[in-house]
Amino acid sequence: MNLVNRVVVILGLLTTMVSSAIVFIAAGPVLRTLILFLQQVEANLMAMTGPRIFLRWVGGLVLIFLVWAICAALLWLEIRRPRVKTIKVQQVSGGSAELAADSIADRLEYNIDQLADVIKVRPTINSGRKGVKVSLAVETSPEIDVPGKTEEIQFLTRDIVENRMGLQLETVRVVLRHTPYSKSIFRGRKAKVAAQPAEGALVETQLDVEPASDNWPGAELAVDAGPDDLPGDDLFSYDLPDENQLPPDLLGDDRSDDDA
């Protein structure tokens, strides 16, 4: 019935599209032609006398019967309950048994969904000449071994259908679909590499200096890394208040001579 519905809907839509285009573009000529055709039909019907009147009534009744028969068939196909599709069980002795196709699909869906890397499965069951035709639409993780996973699904399907359900399996068709890869937040971003200074260039370094402690009030750390100084020359020096200065005699002879 689904096929009949599609055919009827497609034909109706195509007819409506063509008719509307013709009527809307050339409404006047179309209406005049239609009126002339109906007038000619009416004149022919009125001209029928004697035996022709009988033929007119018979022809009208035949047309009515055909139209009503087509409409009744379509209505019956539309409102009737579809018969449950069943598959005959082969391995039964002393009688016959049939299994609903929906039950086969549900069992396959439940068992195949338990496999690793299988996210979702949608089975379709059809009856063939030699047995059951199974079509599986399987959604899996993106990083899988496709041949190995396909063989695993086919082996499990054959075991369920033939060994556990007693049916004859004709074909197994597996259609795999991978889930999309997850997008990383770092995708498309490149790490920024600090530029290396050229040889002989002057590098300036800024240090964050903490406030002076209580033991050295007013002390300030000074960094002198100029190119004119030697390595280690006055690298660290402290400016101290006068009350915290040491006597010259304790600084040694060199310091006393410099101060002098």
- First-to-last CA distance: 118 Å
- The run of helices and strands is HHHEEHEEHEEEH
Shape: elongated
CATH architecture of the largest domain: 2-Layer Sandwich
The CATH superfamily of the largest domain is identified as ANL, C-terminal domain
Description:
- The chain has six helices and seven strands.
- The chain has helices spanning 2-25, 27-46, 51-79, 101-112, 146-164, 253-259; strands at 86-88, 98-100, 118-127, 132-140, 169-178, 221-223, 236-238.
- By secondary structure, the protein is of the alpha+beta class.
- The longest helix has 29 residues, at 51-79.
- The chain is elongated and about 80 Å long.
- It folds into three domains: 2-79, no CATH class; 86-178, ANL, C-terminal domain (GMP Synthetase, Chain A, domain 3); 221-259, no CATH class.
- The relative contact order is 0.06.
- A hairpin with a 4-residue loop joins strand 3 and strand 4.
- The strands form three sheets. Strands 3-4-5 form a three-stranded mixed beta sheet. The protein has a two-stranded antiparallel ribbon with strand order 1-2. The protein has a two-stranded antiparallel sheet with strand order 6-7.
State the gist of this model:
43% of the residues lie in helices and 16% in strands. It has 260 residues and is an alpha+beta fold.
Give the key terms.
two-stranded antiparallel sheet, alpha+beta, 3 domains, 16% strand, 260 residues, GMP Synthetase, Chain A, domain 3, 6 helices, 43% helix
